[in-house]
Specification:
With 233 residues, this protein is α/β, with parallel strands linked by helices. It folds into two domains: 137 residues, HAD superfamily/HAD-like (Rossmann fold); 82 residues, Up-down Bundle (Four Helix Bundle (Hemerythrin (Met), subunit A)). 47% of the residues lie in helices and 12% in strands. The protein has eleven helices and six strands. Strands 3-2-1-4-5-6 form a six-stranded parallel sheet, with helices on both faces. Strand 2, helix 7 and strand 3 form a beta-alpha-beta unit.
Length: 233
């Protein structure tokens, strides 16, 4: 583990699986979208299950590799394709996506998140950089952060250094003055390291570090642990 923690002035966070467990959220959101389609656009759900809709979105992702960074585009495009297939107006895509994104932003925060952000925000400048399309304004967390960016706004997915660099562009901070906190070794740790930030792996489930991701890095299980790592009392 390397990096001078005494130089840290900013903390940038991942969102999904760092602040909340994302899989139950996505499953509920996809079900909410499906229920909306069943009520308003029943020809779609008469022919397709939730799993079939999920596979169709994966096929869209393969068809538009240049849009891999934009999860919102991929979902909307898939829904627009379904609208045409089943003889509905393309407005179906916007309406069904809104049903999805509303539920997608109904998250259950880990217990340590709010007290951790309150504590960390007293000392450090806070940011987020995520591959996903969670909306911190809808969730109610936006006020904690100086800037929040997602991959679709930058045109690059983690671990591409561009997302890490863009979130602190113009802030006066250098990458080595920022820790990046995330749960995914390949996306968050490797990406932050490549961008010149100090990676901190949030390992809530106590899984084993894999050498394929390089040398071991600073590891915490909660935001309280992060505060301790960064010298907060």
């Amino acid at each position: 583990m390397s990096g001078d923690l005494s130089r840290i002035r900013g903390i940038c966070f991942d969102l999904d699986n760092t602040f909340w467990d994302v899989m139950p959220v996505i499953e509920r959101a996809e079900q909410a979208m499906y229920d909306f389609l069943a009520q308003r656009y029943p020809r779609v759900t008469a022919a397709m299950t939730v799993e079939m809709l999920r596979k169709a979105r994966q096929e869209t992702a393969r068809a538009y590799p240049q849009m891999a960074h934009d999860f919102t585009f991929l979902r909307r495009q898939t829904l627009a394709d379904h609208a045409r297939e089943f003889g509905y107006a393309e407005a179906m895509a916007d309406e069904a996506f809104e049903a999805f994104i509303q539920a997608r932003n109904e998250v259950v925060l880990y217990d340590d998140v709010l007290p951790g952000l309150d504590r960390l925000g007293q000392r450090f400048r806070l940011f987020t950089a995520s591959n996903g399309n969670a909306d911190l304004r809808r969730i109610g967390l936006a006020h904690y952060f100086e800037r929040s960016l997602c991959a679709r706004e930058v045109g690059a997915l983690k671990p591409d250094p561009r997302l890490f660099h863009k979130v602190i562009e113009g802030t006066g901070l250098e990458p080595q003055q920022v820790v990046y906190v995330g749960d995914d070794p390949a996306l968050d740790v490797v990406g932050a390291r490549a961008a010149g930030m100090l990676p901190v792996w949030i390992n809530r489930d106590g899984v084993q570090w894999s050498a394929e991701h390089g040398p071991m890095v600073h590891t915490v299980r909660t935001l309280q642990d992060l505060g301790g790592l960064l010298g907060l009392e």
